[in-house]
Amino acid sequence: MPKHRELFLQAIKSDVYRDALFNRVIENFVVQGGEHDTDIAKREAAHPELGKPRLAAEFDPRAYHKVGAFGAGRDDNPEKASFLNQLYFIVGKPVSTEELDALEQKKGFAYTTEARNTYLQIGGQPRLDNDYTVFGEVYEGLSVLLEISKVRTDKSDYPLKEIHFTVEEIR
Description:
Layout: H1 2-13, E1 20-26, E2 30-34, H2 37-46, E3 69-72, E4 86-90, H3 97-107, H4 113-122, E5 134-137, H5 142-148, E6 164-165
């Protein structure tokens, strides 16, 4: 997912994710932050002449929605193209062999042995595979995200208390 990686690194350099907010939190699913869907829709409606900038989807069987994966959010566009300034982290849930088998039938692809084993051992959200672009993985601090995923939210999944975050590049 080289284009998503470059977009993300550019966003870090531009401070897009400096003191950003997690604005959608769903236990056993995702912790999402950056620009919110509603804000994107309002901006695009106010300036239709600018179009709807998106980054084309990039799928790779090595990048899947296991616990700790992170990817780019999107709307319901048929190209499955990503928003430019929104990311999510998978906190996931346990996955069964039956669920994976059913998803393979429904989606028309087979999970790799690695993905299947990982989903069965640690869980995730395999239903998002090949629909949303995964371009990274949390390697430190996953326990913090898992705690964030349990905060109280309103009916629209907004946390009742603001949760700020900053993303920095580590070299």
